[in-house]
Amino acid sequence: MPTSLVLAGVFAAGLGKGPGIAWSKDYTRAFAEAEERRAPLLVHFRGANCGRTTVPGATESRGGSRGDGITRPLHDTELGDCDLMQQDVLENVMVVELTRRYVPVLVGPGDETLNTRYQVIVNPTTLFLDPWGNEIFRVSGYLERAKFSRILQAVPTDFAPLAAAGRGLREKPDDLAALAAVAAFYESQRLRQVSERLYERAQAAPAAAGDLARAGPHPPHDGQGQGGRIRVREGAGRRPGRPGLGCSSPGRRQRAPGGGPPSRGGDRVSAPAAGVSRLALHGASQAEPRSGEE
């Protein structure tokens, strides 16, 4: 068979449909399985209201700040974010393959338990969670396939070092020792955006307030702070050769003016500077008694 035909077949297979993601609607069982396997969770929220009113002849450009996005006539496709995410991203063979190490959960209309727990208000929303259900990344709305794939690959493959802290954070979200340990873990994985958010939460934890106040003011730990803020830019702190992720940082919803839905931009995320000494934070976390040690 000519080489050109073989390559064409491989390319077509990559674009076509194959076995889809094996979504589970039983989130209780899925979360238990993830903890047992120490596998990350992929939780996709698809509500009843995922379409939008369109005007005949209107067009819309999606993603592709570097020219790799799509422009579609709204009146021809009539695809809302949920359908576009499903057809363009979640049914793609390469994306499906990248999700095989995850425990996938599909949340539809009806049971609002997980919507409430994770404060999900936009459809679709996709959460990337650790094996204990703690949020790592969040994608609100549609995100082009290439960036979605990079997030799937960025989530760590080995969560064994995080076991104790992950369980502690699930049981007590403001546990200082757990927050500091989880932040250090993601920092070691070069996921700077995630670690910064967790260091912020650790700084705000009740147990840290007194210790950090007694330690006195500290300059921003990375020297980048200006006026109490830093800019976490695309690819900041990533591994050499690793593309930027282009996703929103959990807990920091980028809302449009007038209370509209969160912004789809994810190339740059503004984050308040942690502005604390990691050494002081570590000392405070070590001084806090853990469960069963009081």
Helix content: 25-40%
Tally of DSSP helical segments: 12
How big is the Rg?
21 Å
Overall mean pLDDT stands at 73
> Strand arrangement, largest sheet?
4-1-5-6
Q: What ranges have pLDDT less than 50 throughout 5 or more consecutive residues? A: 1-16, 218-243, 251-277, 289-294
Helix/strand order, N-terminal first: HHEEEHHHEHEEHHHHHEEH
Largest sheet: 4 strands, mixed
The number of distinct β-strands equals 8
Q: Could you tell me how far the N terminus lies from the C terminus, measured between alpha carbons in angstroms?
A: 72 Å
Explain this structure.
There is one protein chain. The protein is 39% helix and 13% strand. It has 294 residues and is of the alpha+beta class. Strands 4-1-5-6 form a four-stranded mixed sheet, sandwiched between helices. Strand 2 (59-62) and strand 3 (70-73) form a beta hairpin. Helix 8 (163-171) crosses helix 9, helix 9 (176-188) runs antiparallel to helix 10 and helix 9 crosses helix 12 (278-287). The longest helix has 13 residues, at 3-15.
